[in-house]
Amino acid sequence: MMRSDTKRWAFSDLLRHVKSAPGWRDAVSSFFKRFPRFFKTIAFKVLALYTVAFSILATVFILYVGFSSGQIVRGGMMQLIEDEVELLVEEFERGGIRDMVEAVDRRSFRPNASLYLITDPAGRPLAGNISSVPPGVLKQPGMFNIQYARFEEGGEGATNHQALARVFVLPGGIRAIVGRDVSEREQFRTVIFQALRTSVVVLILIAVLSAFLLGRRFTRHLSEVSETSREIMEGNLSGRIPLSGSGDEFDQLSANLNQMLDRIEQLLKGIKQVSDNVAHDLKTPLTRMKSRIEQALRDPSDAEELKAVLESTLTECDDLIHIFNALLSIARAEAGEGQSFAPFDGVEMVSGLVELYEPEAEERGVELTSDLPEGLEIVGDRQLIAQALTNLLDNALKYGIPHMAGVNDVHGSENDPDAGPDASHTDRLGNTARSKIALSMKQEGEAILISVTDCGPGIPDADHARVKERFVRLDESRTEPGSGLGLSLVNAVATRHGGAVHLENVNPGLRVTLSLPNLSANKNKKLD
Amino acid sequence: MRILIIEDDGEAASFLVKGLREAGHTADHIADGEEGFLHAVDELYDVLIVDRMLPSRDGLSIISGLRAKGNNTPVLILSALGAVDDRIQGLRSGGDDYLPKPFSFNELLARIEALVRRHAPDETETVYAVGDLQLDRLARTVTRSGQTILLQPREFRLLEYLMKNAEQVVTRTMLLENVWDYHFDPQTNVIDVHISRLRSKIDKDFDTPLLHTVRGAGYIMKV
Question: Which pLDDT does position B78 carry in this prediction?
Answer without folding.
Answer: 92
